[in-house]
Amino acid sequence: MKKIIALVLTLTMLLTLCACGSQASQDIGESTAAAENVKVESDQGSRPRKGPLKDLMDALFPEQEIWMGMPAAEYSGEVGEVQDFYNGELYRYLYLEEDCMAAGTELYFLENGGLSMVYAYGTQLTPETLSEICGDPMFFREVDWESVSYWIVEDNLLIYYSADARLELYTEGWAGRFCPEQWLTAKSGLILVSAGAEGLYWYQDILNWKYGLYEESTDSTLTEPLYDACGDFDPEGMAPVQRDGYWGYINAAGETVIGHYFESAEPFVGDCAVVEADKWGAIDRKGDYVVQPEYHRITIQDGFLIVDKSGRYGAFDAAGQSIVPVSGKQGYENITICNGILYAQYAERSYHAYDENGDRLLPEAECVTLPKNGFHIVRMPYESIYGWTTSGYTFADVAFNVLGTTLYDELTDFSAAGYAVGSNNWESFDVIDTQGNVVYTLPELNNGDGITNYEYANSYLACGHYSMWTSFHYGVTNLETGIFTEYDVVEPVDGTECVIVTAKSGLKGLYERDELYFDCVYDDIVFDGEAFTVTRGAEVSTYVPTGN
Q: What string of H, E and C letters represents the secondary structure of 13-82?
């Protein structure tokens, strides 16, 4: 009797193993590896002996052996240099035009995961052929002019687009990182769209095309498909949704927290959201207005509500307190926020500055330019020798303390090296430091025959131009010798003592300090913040400037 029982158990185990082998292509996430059917199902991968995935790869690449997870070193051809795909993911890329069942195929070999993604364009494989190889698709949908089919083949995501006969194949690790919605779509059988919060997705009903809320962790729908449109959840867990033509807000549990009253609604930013009810206003998280709906547009920037009323701008804080008046004697054309200060522009290079309480900063100044390299250029009023009030330019620090003691007709922004150029009547030009001291007086470039203008200075060079009628002549002036050298284009490189210059030939060179370090024989010179990339024909080199 014991022998009979043992024999029955042995037969049962063998039948179970056979059933697992035949079921492997159908069960999501199954990791069975029977002796007769070894699968590959990690980004590291190993060479498969049998199974639908091997059959699929053999169909795609009949002329050579390729498998998912294949290390780049084992591929017989050249797969290119290591590149950074996204967020530190290193990969090697290969484009195939032959030896595959497609017009063109792209292979991506992750450095730590082998072959992890395949794009095959114009493949000769059809959905019917793929179903014969991989079984019925997990999910199928029709979108406009094309159908999309999804399979999960031994833990690999396979997507086929009918319009261009395109096939995409991802390992599970790649799919989970780079196309999680597609991965979940195949697994859940729902059309999923990111809801902007981890684990939450909008799903779309393919019968009425309305949206509902889906939770990944429980693999369940939190709401019925009730919504015509929807937006992202904010960090506090509220999202705008449209129902029956009007917008409201729900929480992460799918509960309505602000009713559907609005013609348009945007996600919350901080404690406010912008909504439209005939015109635009802003509400708090209780649904109460903090800014009444009477504006043509509202945007939220750095915690402030920037409002536009017929092309005139103002600002409120998140509690609805007015910071920058919308209307006034001049009216503001734009508002820029820098370091918590609101710069309200009313003309070119003309701003009023307001703090977070709505107090005007440096009220005695006629205008304030945006801060650059730690300083503002300000225009101060003064009484002329003729008895009327005029104005001149000086400078202030970021705390709006006026530091300059001389007023100029024009004053450039300070360079990162700490120098600005002031001019009077475009006849005399002073290079000043951050204490307002004149460190060099620049020569007039055109000997009085035209208009001279300097725009930049560092410790060694000043960049400027002179114009004679319609001709402009750009160049650099050596501060030690006063010699002007003309170029077609002059580009100071902020943060360095370098200037890129372009000759009439179109070729580029580089000044470092007071020397032409690279002659004008280069096709291109580009600075990335740390080093210059210098190109000359096929030759490419890098150069790190002194002090960087």
A: HHHHHHHHHHHCCCCCCCCCCECCECCCCCCCCCCCCCCHHHHHHHHHCCCCCCCCCCCHHHCCCCCCCC
Give 335-346 pLDDT, tens digit per residue.
999 999 999 999
Measured distance CA(510)–CA(512) in Å, rounded: 6
3-class DSSP state of 483: coil
Q: Amino acid letter at 379?
A: R
Residue 51: which of 22, 74, 15, 88 has the closest Cα? 22
* Residue 30, number of CB atoms within 10 A of its CB: 16
Of 71, 74, 68, 25, the C-alpha closest to 48 is 68
Inter-residue contact 34 to 135 (CB < 8 Å): no
Q: Is the pLDDT of residue 35 over 70?
A: no
pTM of the model: 0.71
Structure tokens at 472: 């402009």
DSSP state letters, 495-527: TTTEEEEE-TTS-EEEEETTEEEEEEEESEEEE
Q: For 213-257, write each residue's pLDDT tens digit.
A: 999 999 999 999 999 999 999 999 999 999 999 999 999 999 999
Neighbouring C-alpha atoms within 13 Å toward the C-beta of 122: 8
Bridge partners, residue 343, by sequence:
336, 353
Report the distance separating Cα 101 and Cα 188, nearest Å.
30
Residues 6 or more apart in contact with residue 49 via CB below 8 angstroms: 37, 38
How many CA atoms lie less than 13 Å away from 373 in the CB half-sphere? 18
- Taking the C-alpha atoms of residue 133 and residue 160, their distance in angstroms, rounded to an integer, is 13
User: Residue 409, exposed/middle/buried by CB under 10 A (0-12, 13-18, 19+)?
Assistant: middle
Partners of 473 in beta bridges:
466
CA nearest to 120, candidates 180, 60, 66: 60
DSSP, residue by residue, 216-250: TTTTEESS-S-BSEE-PPPTTSEEEEEETTEEEEE
Secondary structure letter of residue 317 according to DSSP: -
Query: Cα–Cα distance between 318 and 274 in angstroms, integer?
Result: 11
